[in-house]
Amino acid sequence: MLLFLPETLRSLVGDGSIRPHPFYRPLIPIIGRTLSDSEAAAQEKPPKTAFTNPLRLFLSLVITLLLIFNAVLCAVFYGVTASISTLFVEAYPSLTEIEIGLCFLAIGGGMLFGSCFTGRILDKEYRKVKENLEQKCRDDPESTMKPEDVTKDENFPIEYARLRTMPIYYVLFVVACIAYGWCLDRKVNIAGPLILQILIGYTVISIMNTIQTLIVDLNPSQGSSITACNNLIRCTAGAVLVSVIDLIIKAMGVG
What we know:
By secondary structure, this protein is mostly helical. The chain contains 9 helices and no strands. It folds into 2 domains: 1-49, no CATH class; 58-252, Growth Hormone, Chain: A, CATH 1.20.1250.
């Protein structure tokens, strides 16, 4: 980050065309546009925006429920990840430390695939809902809404468009977690838990990205505040579960 990542805060760099103070520049400024000193001096800095307390988002019941839902799933994911080394040593004692470390690649690979495809799936589902609404407007002679107005906030069912795939992801996540615990408890072939790790990683990142996208759609002007609140509550939930995951496993068992 210090070497390559450029500053993106609009109050400092606008759309990226304003050269920030040297303190905010990367050590190796490869990414982004570079202006000469004269061009940079001619650029006008964007007006400063007033500070908005991100915690005010918790006053919205809808936002709070979505964040809690996200946090619970994220906590389960952290619990699975934190217990990999301990559970794999018990279930497969022949594994070396390096081999156990390589087992983490499965869940990471699933998250990588999820990150690559979730956005495309969300865009596709959004277009489907939009096209269906536009077609209904054209087919209904009594409709007072024009096809080009379907994407307006008061007309477009953004929750339905974003959450259409959520039941599939959620069911797969729950089934994968249950099967994962059973496989480790029964000490089946190691391929089983690793495949389920891929599925857990894929579904959990897909769910988190879907919820994050919906919250931003509901509050498009507070994207950074939403990200901050999301990170706060999900990391807190993850830390709590990780601190007690060993106690839960000892009390209830792996499967």
